[in-house]
Design a protein that fits this description.
The chain is an alpha+beta fold. It has helices spanning 3-20, 64-73, 87-95, 138-149, 158-165, 169-181, 198-217, 244-252, 268-275, 306-315, 319-331, and strands at residues 24-28, 37-42, 51-59, 78-85, 99-102, 107-110, 115-118, 185-187, 193-195, 218-224, 241-243, 260-264, 277-279, 285-289. Helix 8 packs across helix 11 and helix 10 runs antiparallel to helix 11.
């Protein structure tokens, strides 16, 4: 367990004890790969079990598939400790029987002997300046996406990165400088750079994409004249791609989409005319501006990369989509 994880766990449990009077102690253990693992014992006779504990910095919707998988594999009671757990995520955790405590001491714990629910407590997060780094601005997120999707891109010339992402040369330089400063990129020599901490970078990108870049790309929601049963008849040009539920269905033939997500380089009106789409605020077809240039994705099948499909599936907070995202990452590496 690293120092930051220890601090989060210690502070969250201190706040929990302050609110409930129930003391708790935890100790690091060797656990499941990719997780900061510990066990926790509550000093109260109503807690008869030792809990396995997962500690995270921020808990967001794209973490849910992995958390559900961990819960399913755990033989002992399980509790999630998070510095920040967002409200919609808390709702999902409660509905799916995952116990949690956040840094402010807000908690939801259910056992056969006791039920604890605390909400509304505040904690001042002082760690967000990292997220404001220019590497995770709207421009930076475009660049990071290309670096994650194309293994060779990290060593492309700056001007080529700018061309492929639609960013300025200055924007690319700012992004690379920020990634180097945070340890996500490492210079091996004058001509070779590599990505470090890839899993953390993927996590940061998904969070930033869902919160900052994706809303700015939204072109509108639409309905088809023939209804959703004809969604596969939507015509995509060479620069348009399926994502979210539609892409997952085409990859796995499991989740029949209730909503369709499409990224396009076409003008909105041209795409509407091509497919006879009707604007509607609750339309099942959601159109986004494509935020990359060049053949990123499967041009023959018009499928967006798995990373983007996963980000769009988890962004829905729909249990069907969360389950599908969970299966998707079992079969594909992000």
């Amino acid at each position: 367990m690293n120092t930051k994880a220890y601090h989060i766990g210690h502070e969250a449990l201190n706040r929990f004890t302050k609110h409930t009077g129930i003391a708790a102690e935890f100790s690091p253990t060797q656990g499941v790969e990719h997780f900061e693992d510990a066990t926790i014992r509550f000093q109260d006779p109503r807690f008869t079990d030792v809990f396995d504990m997962e500690i995270k910095n921020e808990v967001r919707n794209h973490h849910l598939p992995a958390l559900l998988d961990l819960k399913e594999r755990n033989k002992r009671p399980y509790i999630l400790i998070g510095q920040t757990i967002f409200p919609s995520v808390k709702d999902y955790l409660r509905k799916n029987g995952i116990n949690y405590i956040d840094m402010a001491g807000n908690a939801s714990i259910q056992t056969d002997q006791i039920v604890i629910y605390i909400d509304g407590q505040k904690w001042q997060d002082e760690t967000h300046p990292m997220l404001l780094n220019r590497a995770f601005s709207k421009t930076g997120l475009r660049v990071v996406y290309l670096l994650l999707i194309d293994p060779m891109a990290v060593n492309y010339p700056v001007r080529l990165l700018a061309e492929l992402t639609g960013a300025s040369v200055g924007g690319v330089n700012n992004t690379v400088t920020g990634l180097l400063a945070m340890g996500f990129l490492r210079r091996i020599n004058k001509t070779t750079t590599r990505i470090d901490l890839r899993e953390t970078l993927v996590d940061r990108w998904i969070s930033g994409y869902q919160e900052r870049l994706k809303p700015a790309l939204h072109l509108g929601n639409f309905r088809m004249k023939g209804g959703m049963e004809n969604w596969e008849q939507v015509k995509l040009d060479a620069g348009s791609y399926w994502s979210g539920e539609a892409a997952a269905y085409k990859m796995r033939k499991n989740l029949f989409p209730k909503a369709v997500t499409i990224y396009t380089g076409m003008e909105k009106l041209d795409f509407m005319k091509l497919n006879q789409l009707i604007p509607h605020p609750e339309g099942e077809i959601t159109l986004y501006q494509r935020f990359w240039n060049g053949p990123i994705g499967q041009a023959d099948t018009h499928l967006a990369p798995v990373l983007l499909t996963y980000a769009d599936l988890t962004d829905t907070m729909d249990p069907r989509c969360i389950d599908e995202a969970q299966e998707l990452i079992k079969e594909n590496k992000l």
